[in-house]
Amino acid sequence: MQVSSLQRYPPNTLLISEGERPDFLHVLIEGCVELFASHNGRHTTIDIVKASTFIFAAVILDQPYLKSARTLLESRILLLPAKDVRAIFYEDPDFAFAAIAEISKCYRDLVKLLKDQKLRSTSERLANWLLRNYSKHGDDLVVALEFEKKTLSSLLGTTPENLSRALGQLAAAGVVTSGRTIRITDKEALVAFASPSRLIDGTIG
Amino acid sequence: MQVSSLQRYPPNTLLISEGERPDFLHVLIEGCVELFASHNGRHTTIDIVKASTFIFAAVILDQPYLKSARTLLESRILLLPAKDVRAIFYEDPDFAFAAIAEISKCYRDLVKLLKDQKLRSTSERLANWLLRNYSKHGDDLVVALEFEKKTLSSLLGTTPENLSRALGQLAAAGVVTSGRTIRITDKEALVAFASPSRLIDGTIG
DNA sequence: GACGTCGATTGATATTTATAAAACGATGAA
DNA sequence: TTCATCGTTTTATAAATATCAATCGACGTC
């Protein structure tokens, strides 16, 4: 693809607005992007992605975006002209198969988000999110937030105030919060509280 | 596809259980199917479909179903062996393109469901659902429920009790309920209350 | 026609979640 | 350093939603 371009964006850059027609397929090479939507003065974060395509379906169908997108961190993004993506999709079976695998994965991730939202309380969503996002620092299990708590609260489908309170609740399960660093001191207890499920929290595969 | 088969199922037949491996792609020819999920004793309806494939993504990726499925009405369903679907997908570019269009559409419908869930209150979801599902009977706009209100309440992400109360609220906007027949007597008022959006309620296209 | 069943509704109450306002705390500028 | 800003937390209160129990009403059976 000759006319594709690799762009670098600072944090908090609006990349896409819902309702627009897709001109490019965005491939996030490095960084972090929030997908969100607004309606009637309300706002919600749909997903936060770190390395993947986003809003592939709108490009394939040549339909208006249903979500907006903004960078949360400085990000490098490959822009592929939507027209070319659709053309190559027709010509190259390998690309077609890769595309459908990617969209199918996105679909399944979205089913999981909807199940998470409809089947769990706020603090359960938070507990499971922590279990999906911690990393090991020596013996410690730590979640180092790369974005504002406000954004996390919107992703979890609640408010910053309630996120604070939920973190307070989880202290009873050994979750210690200080600023953007959240420490899981008793994974067993947190798992017992969260009861994660492969069919909601599992990564594909 | 020689080994495909067209089956007829009575209402309330479990077709698929979440967690199972997909053996077949299901194509709903006629009838009505509920897609739902359970977790920790809770239950939620993800979607209700009338004529389409369902759970295509699991078949393509050969991954466990994330949703269960049951018939709500007597239904005719075409069963295509999952293996064959994947094989044909590789061989036939037209099929591949149809498949990706189908999954992309499903993806977008799911984004709309998630936005509906996160950006609206229960009575707003109900109002918009009515506006998406009524049909004209002479001068009247009528929603004739084909399934239990319990199922609708689960689809809307609430309880039967709260669905009752929400229908009560909407009486102020001219919504008249009697049994499974819901009449919209003042569409303007209902639209004003619901504020539907193309980016949440729109059918594709 | 009387009875039993089951879904739907209603009323009372509890829980969860949101909102509004104030206080806190880190950060950056003057 | 001092001040202002902004995200976060806390407190208080309100609204939305869920739960529990009881009742209603349609339907089918005996």
Please give a structural write-up.
Two copies of one chain form a homodimer. Chain A is of the alpha+beta class and 205 residues long. Chain A folds into two domains: 5-118, Jelly Rolls (Sandwich); 120-201, Arc Repressor Mutant, subunit A (Orthogonal Bundle), CATH 1.10.10. In chain A, 41% of the residues lie in helices and 29% in strands. Chain A is built from eight helices and twelve strands. The first copy, chain A, has a four-stranded antiparallel beta sheet. Chain A has a four-stranded antiparallel beta sheet with strand order 2-7-4-5. In chain A, strands 9-10-12-11 form a four-stranded antiparallel beta sheet. Chain A is elongated. The relative contact order of chain A is 0.14. The mean pLDDT of chain A is 95. Chain A binds a DNA duplex (30 and 30 nucleotides) through residues 121-122, 148-150, 158-165, 168, 179.
Short description:
Two copies of one chain form a homodimer. Chain A is of the alpha+beta class.
Overview features:
homodimer, 205 residues, alpha+beta, Jelly Rolls, Arc Repressor Mutant, subunit A, 2 domains, four-stranded antiparallel β-sheet, 12 strands, DNA-binding
Ends distance of chain A: 30 Å
Rg of chain A computed from alpha carbons, rounded to a whole number of angstroms: 18 Å
**What's the SSE pattern of chain A?**
EEEEEEHEEHHHEEHHEEHH
Low-confidence stretches of chain A: none
Structural classification of chain A: alpha+beta
Quote the beta fraction of chain A: 25-35%
Number of helices of chain A: 8
Largest sheet of chain A: 4 strands, antiparallel
Q: What is the architecture of the largest domain in chain A at the second tier of CATH?
A: Sandwich
Number of domains of chain A: 2
Largest interface, per-chain counts?
Answer: A-B, 50 and 50 residues
Spatial strand arrangement across the major sheet of chain A: 1-8-3-6
User: CATH topology of the largest domain in chain A, anyone?
Assistant: Jelly Rolls
- The oligomeric state is homodimer
Number of strands of chain A: 12
The helix content of chain A is 40-55%
What would you call the shape of chain A? elongated
Mean pLDDT of chain A: 95
Going by CATH, the homologous superfamily of the largest domain in chain A would be Jelly Rolls
CATH class of the largest domain in chain A: Mainly Beta
